[in-house]
Structure formats: structure tokens, C-alpha cells
UniProtKB/TrEMBL annotation:
Residues 331-420 form the Histidine kinase/HSP90-like ATPase domain. Keywords: ATP-binding, Coiled coil, Kinase, Membrane, Nucleotide-binding, Phosphoprotein, Transferase, Transmembrane, Transmembrane helix, Two-component regulatory system. This is histidine kinase. InterPro entries: HATPase_C_sf (IPR036890), HATPase_dom (IPR003594), Sensor_HK_TwoCompSys (IPR050482), Sig_transdc_His_kin_sub3_dim/P (IPR011712). The chain crosses the membrane at residues 40-57, 115-135, 142-159, 165-185. SUPFAM superfamilies: ATPase domain of HSP90 chaperone/DNA topoisomerase II/histidine kinase. One of its GO terms (cellular component) is membrane. It catalyses: ATP + protein L-histidine = ADP + protein N-phospho-L-histidine.
Length: 432
């Protein structure tokens, strides 16, 4: 017997379990007066319904006075609870309404003002509770409440056909409409809340994506700067025995150790580069230092020459003092830096020719290196491709073009065109 009752009891328990926490109606409103409005209205309804019910029940329906007061409290008082728990309030008030109907003597003498099976205050109170249940509870709970109210009203009326004046149909029809309206408003509110949550999630995802893009930019800046300098250190240490013929054996060995350490540092730097590009890496920051530009290319070439890498530079003299767009200025420097770093890594000892020129429309950067020959061993035979990717993105940033590739007789060529107009437009309209 008990297993057979388990499923129906579980269904009833599920049907009449509140859908969510007891949050007050309009509790999320910004204005305090709006948040207090449901409580004020519930107090007003109780202040009206309680004395009216306590008066109508004994005078018009023949209910004993003390019982009428108790029924009035049980039928009207739950409206105060309905602000937070409408289903519980209905669960208290509706049985009290049914008990009140059953306690009315059959010979109460029903006046024209008397309605059956519930007096007017109870009808209004039931309609308010049914609306609040529709606003708060699940559709199946709303349907169960409506069916229970309708079935009970029909049963009471059927038991006393002489009292039937159709008043119970008001609760059935109007209450059903109010519950449907409440359910529609609840669904609309739920959809708006879900949309707001989705917008919040989307905004968080956009912020996260922006952070990842910034980490990628930092990683590429790190690659451009650190890899170049570490490569130069490695070449200097490797070429020291050839540039300094009288170098003692101990010093030559020391330079070899320095070169090996530098290579290990390059490998560690590349692993760190992968960490910086990972979305799980912690946030970091760097010092705000001025970004290099075309006026620093000469220093870059000098440092590379001092490392033993022959470089010829052709630079328009006016560019050193020209007010170039910042994006073009930085991109030109980074392209030359990455190109020379690639020459140092892949063709040490080969002559590299750097040319930077300008016209009215933009800047042209050209880096060409001869085939590698000599005693130097390439630091790398295969690269990760980050350098060329960085070049392409810097050129794309200013709306320019990039042409890279090996030369027919050996060597490599990097040619970039950086227009001024696109960079100026980007500077004036960063959101574009």
C-alpha cells in the first residue's frame, strides 16, 4: 500500500512546492517606495477584508460571531504572507474559505447580497492570491491551484443547488485569467533576467577575450625585444674566438658557456611566451616605457654590427626628426628588429641591408640578407613563425602590405609598406 501511495504523494509534494526562494514581490526594484508598495497594499487589503468579513459572516450568513472572527483572520491574514510566499498564503486562506462555506447554516436565508459559496471579500482575496501564485510559481503549480479551486467551488455548489447563483464561476473564470496573466508576466520577467545574465556573461567573455588579445600582444612584444637581444648575445659569444685571435683558452671556454646559457635562455623565453599566450596565465604588467621608432633603428643596427653581424643601413635623414604616426613608427622599428633577429638566428655572418624610406603616402621598409657563409653555425634551423606573424599583424594594423620570402640566389627578403593615411585614421578613430 505504501509504495502505491508514494508516487501520488511525491507528485502532490512537487506540485505544491514553491518554485524559488521567498523573495518579496518587486524586491529588486531600485526605488524604495516601489519595494514597499506590495507590503502597503497587503496591509490595506487586510485592514479592509478582516473587519468586513467578521461582520458579513454572522450578519448575512448566520455564522457564530467568535467563529466568524477566527475565520476572518484565517481568510484575510495570509495576504500579509503573500508578498513573500503566495503559495503558502493560498494554502492557508483557501482551506479557511472552504471551512467558512461549510460552517454556513443551510437556512441562513440567503439575501440578495449573499453570494455562494464564498462572500465577496473572500472572492476578492482569492483572486489576489491566485494572481500572486501565477506571478511566482511554475505553470504546473498554477494549473493545480486553479483546478483545485474550480473543483472545490463546483463541489460546494453542487451540494447546495438552492444556493447556486453562479458566483463561484467568477473565481473560476476571472481567477484563471489572472493566473494566466501572472504566468505570462513571470515568463517575461524570467526571459528578461536570463537575457540580462547572458549579456553579463557575454560582456565578461568580451573582457576575457580582450585580455587574451592583450596578452598575445605582450607576448609578441616580448618575443621581438628579448629574442633579438638574446640572439645578439649568443652571436657575440660564439664569434668571440674568431674576432679575438689571441683569446686565452679559458676565456674562449667561458664565451662558449655564455653562448650555451644564452641558447637555453632563448628556449626558456619561448616557453614563457607560450605561458603568456595561455588564457590561464595570471595577469601581469610591465613598466610604461616610451616605444621605439624609426629614430632608434640606427642604434639597433649599431648593436647588431657590434655583435659581429654585418649590416648596411640606408635611412632617409629627414625620418629621424619626422613626426610619423605612432603605429607606423613603432611598426617600422619592430619589423627591422625582427628581420635582423631572424638574420642573426638563421644566417649569422651574412650581410644584411636595411633600407627605410618615405614618400608622401607612406613608409617603405626593406631588409635583405645575403646567403650565409662563414664559420658561424645557425642558431636555429627552424623557427616558430611568431616573428613573421608579428610582422603581418603590425602591417595589418596600419593597413599596409608585407612581402616576405627567400631570394632566388639564396638569402631572404622582407619588404613592408606602411601607409600614413590608414594609421592617421586609426589614431583618430580607435574604435574602428
Amino acid at each position: 500500500m505504501l509504495p502505491a501511495l508514494h508516487a501520488p504523494l511525491a507528485l502532490l509534494r512537487d506540485l505544491f512546492t514553491p518554485a524559488g526562494p521567498p523573495e518579496p514581490l518587486l524586491g529588486q526594484a531600485e526605488r524604495p517606495i516601489v519595494r514597499r508598495l506590495p507590503r502597503l497594499l497587503s496591509l490595506l487589503l487586510v485592514a479592509i477584508f478582516l473587519p468586513v468579513t467578521a461582520t458579513i459572516l454572522p450578519n448575512q450568513y448566520g455564522v457564530q460571531s467568535d467563529l466568524a472572527v477566527a475565520l476572518a483572520v484565517a481568510q484575510s491574514g495570509p495576504l500579509l504572507l503573500a508578498v513573500r510566499r503566495p503559495l503558502l498564503a493560498w494554502g492557508i486562506a483557501f482551506p479557511a474559505d472552504v471551512v467558512g462555506a461549510l460552517c454556513m447554516p443551510s437556512d441562513f436565508g440567503g439575501t440578495a447580497a449573499g453570494v455562494w459559496p464564498w462572500p465577496a471579500p473572500q472572492i476578492l482575496g482569492l483572486l489576489v492570491l491566485m494572481l500572486l501564485v501565477g506571478l511566482r510559481e511554475r505553470p504546473r503549480t498554477v494549473a493545480a491551484v486553479w483546478l483545485l479551486v474550480s473543483g472545490t467551488g463546483y463541489a460546494l455548489t453542487a451540494a447546495e443547488r438552492g444556493r447556486d447563483n453562479g458566483a463561484w464561476l467568477v473565481v473560476v473564470i476571472l481567477g484563471g485569467l489572472l493566473m494566466a496573466l501572472g504566468s505570462a508576466l513571470r515568463r517575461s520577467s524570467t526571459d528578461r533576467r536570463a537575457l540580462a545574465e547572458q549579456e553579463t556573461i557575454s560582456e565578461a567573455e568580451r573582457a576575457r577575450r580582450t585580455l587574451l588579445e592583450e596578452r598575445t600582444r605582450i607576448a609578441r612584444e616580448l618575443h621581438d625585444v628579448v629574442a633579438h637581444h638574446m640572439s645578439v648575445i649568443t652571436v657575440q659569444a660564439d664569434s668571440a674566438p674568431y674576432r679575438l685571435p689571441d683569446l686565452p683558452p679559458a676565456a674562449a671556454e667561458e664565451f662558449g658557456t655564455i653562448a650555451a646559457t644564452a641558447r637555453e635562455s632563448l628556449a626558456e623565453m619561448r616557453r614563457l611566451l607560450g605561458v603568456l599566450r595561455s588564457e590561464d596565465a595570471g595577469e601581469g604588467g610591465g613598466e610604461k616605457t616610451p616605444q621605439p621608432g624609426v629614430d632608434r633603428i640606427g642604434q639597433l643596427v649599431e648593436a647588431t654590427v657590434r655583435a659581429g653581424q654585418p649590416v648596411e643601413l640606408t635611412l632617409d635623414q629627414d625620418l629621424a626628426s619626422a613626426a610619423l604616426p605612432q603605429a607606423v613608427d613603432l611598426s617600422a622599428y619592430r619589423i627591422v628588429q625582427e628581420a635582423l633577429a631572424n638574420v642573426v638566428r638563421h644566417a649569422p655572418g651574412a650581410l644584411a641591408r636595411v633600407s627605410v624610406s618615405a614618400d608622401d603616402e607612406g613608409l617603405t621598409v626593406l631588409v635583405v640578407n645575403d646567403p650565409a657563409d662563414g664559420p658561424h653555425t645557425p642558431l636555429e634551423t627552424a623557427g616558430t613563425g611568431h616573428g613573421l606573424v608579428g610582422m603581418r599583424e603590425r602591417v595589418r594594423l596600419v593597413g599596409g602590405t608585407l612581402d616576405t620570402g627567400p631570394l632566388p640566389g639564396g638569402g631572404f627578403r622582407v619588404a613592408a609598406r606602411l601607409p600614413f593615411v590608414s594609421a592617421h585614421l586609426e589614431k583618430e578613430n580607435p574604435a574602428a
